[in-house]
């Protein structure tokens, strides 16, 4: 069946972003590919990134993602960033998945062939051992011969005020000073762009920035290009007469003769319903308003004056005219939620196109 909606994934943009972030951070990358690579498609993204010389490995959020990556055989380490269940530890260790550890009990439960990354909670208060507990856990892991890395997570590195991020970094460094040498990592995308190289930290973990969306106030720190273009086909074209309404609730009423195209994507595909009344799309290179309430599977667009037929493509977002940032703002949310909400019925299509990125 022909897909009604496609997410075009630019391999060149992704590669350029990885190069730019590794250069800015002065470190190799532990690329987060959780949540289906932020909606971009886990396998497609991982295969491209695995060929990049600056990518050390991948970070995932749940064991199934780690198992999927291991099955691809890409030859790159995989770190599970959140704790597994005890009964999952053995299988994950057998697959070579690096495991997060934040307690003595977790350290003692690891099989001898496991490789662990000590998770230190320096102020995020989500996961990890507090600094005064982390040293003992790290030393236990070292005694057992399974300690490979240590990491923490910045809570505010994407904010203009970096005072708390500096405090977190100081707490983390004090833990590292008490441990044998490890692969240390802390910087998310905001951290990479805010701090640049962090001496003693061999890896960085830029997430959304790797997919082309840095914090707005940090966009001048590296040249990044959005990786995904979302487009969908026109399924129907019809006339709406003055006084008639469009979509649920009759929110939009025609004041003139209007040509309306129905487009085959909606909020079940990742186009936020909250963008109703504000959203625009690109039709034949022109910005056109989405009319009325966005539906689960469809939305309607004013195409008056354009030559539009069923089967034509309409662009919801991309790298230039309309971006995910625009759609997120219209929907009252953030880029993360829009991208990770792109549904499974949207076909991911890797595109090895030539783009300017990573300069």
What does this entry show, briefly?
Keywords: Isomerase, Pyridoxal phosphate. With 359 residues, this protein is α/β, with parallel strands linked by helices. The protein contains 11 helices and 18 strands.
Verbal overview:
- Strands 10-13-16-15-14-17 form a 6-stranded antiparallel β-barrel.
- Helix 3 (42-50) crosses helix 4 (63-72) and helix 7 packs parallel to helix 8 (163-177).
- Residues 355-359 have low confidence and may be disordered.
- The protein has 2 domains: 11-211, TIM Barrel, CATH 3.20.20.10; 228-351, Beta Barrel (Lyase, Ornithine Decarboxylase, Chain A, domain 1), CATH 2.40.37.
- The chain is an alpha/beta fold and 359 residues long.
- The chain contains 11 helices and 18 strands.
- The modification N6-(pyridoxal phosphate)lysine is found at residue 34.
Question: Any key phrases for this structure?
Answer:
alpha/beta; 359 residues; Lyase, Ornithine Decarboxylase, Chain A, domain 1; TIM Barrel
Radius of gyration: 23 Å
- What is the tally of helical segments? 11
The helix content, as a percent range, equals 25-40%
Label the CATH architecture of the largest domain. Alpha-Beta Barrel
Q: Biggest sheet: strands side by side, in what order?
A: 10-13-16-15-14-17
Report the structural category. Answer: alpha/beta
> In the CATH hierarchy, what is the class of the largest domain?
Alpha Beta
**First CA to last CA: what distance?**
39 Å
Number of domains: 2
Q: Roughly what fraction of the amino acids lie in strands?
A: 15-25%
CATH topology of the largest domain, by name, is TIM Barrel
Mean residue pLDDT: 96
- Poorly predicted sequence stretches spanning 5 or more consecutive residues: 355-359
> Please, what is the CATH homologous superfamily of the largest domain?
Alanine racemase
H/E topology pattern: EHEHHEHEHEHEHEHEHEEEEEEEEEHHE
Question: Main sheet?
Answer: 6 strands, antiparallel, barrel
Count all strands and give the number. Answer: 18
User: Which shape, going by the Cα principal axes?
Assistant: elongated
């Amino acid at each position: 069946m022909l897909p009604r909606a496609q997410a075009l994934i630019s391999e060149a943009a992704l590669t350029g972003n990885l190069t730019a972030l590794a250069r800015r951070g002065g470190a190799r990358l532990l690329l987060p590919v959780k949540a289906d690579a932020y909606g971009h498609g886990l396998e497609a993204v991982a295969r491209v990134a695995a060929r990049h010389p600056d990518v050390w490995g991948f970070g995932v959020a749940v064991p199934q993602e780690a198992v999927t990556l291991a099955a691809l055989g890409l030859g790159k380490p995989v770190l599970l960033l959140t704790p597994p269940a005890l009964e999952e530890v053995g299988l994950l260790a057998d697959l070579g998945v690096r495991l997060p550890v934040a307690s003595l009990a977790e350290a003692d439960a690891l099989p001898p062939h496991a490789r662990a990354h000590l998770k230190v909670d320096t102020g995020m208060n989500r996961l990890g051992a507090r600094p005064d507990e982390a040293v003992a856990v790290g030393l236990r892991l070292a005694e057992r011969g399974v300690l490979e890395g240590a990491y923490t997570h910045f809570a505010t590195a994407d904010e203009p005020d970096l005072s708390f991020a500096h405090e977190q970094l100081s707490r983390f460094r004090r833990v590292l000073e008490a441990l044998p040498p490890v692969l240390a990592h802390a910087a998310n995308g905001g951290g990479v762009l805010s701090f640049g190289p962090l001496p003693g930290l061999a890896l960085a973990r830029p997430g959304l920035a790797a997919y082309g969306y840095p914090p707005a106030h940090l966009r001048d720190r590296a040249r990044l290009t959005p990786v995904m273009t979302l487009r969908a086909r026109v399924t129907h074209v019809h006339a709406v007469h003055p006084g008639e309404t469009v979509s649920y609730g009759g929110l939009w009423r025609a004041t003139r003769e209007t040509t309306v195209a129905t487009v085959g994507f909606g909020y079940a595909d990742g186009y936020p319903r909250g963008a109703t009344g504000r959203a625009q799309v690109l039709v034949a290179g022109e910005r056109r308003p989405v009319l009325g309430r966005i539906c689960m599977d469809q939305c309607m667009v004013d195409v008056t004056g354009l030559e539009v037929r069923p089967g034509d493509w309409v662009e919801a977002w991309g790298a230039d005219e309309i971006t995910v940032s625009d759609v997120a703002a219209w929907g009252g949310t953030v880029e993360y939620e829009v991208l990770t909400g792109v549904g499974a019925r949207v076909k991911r299509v890797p595109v090895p196109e030539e783009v300017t990125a990573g300069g």
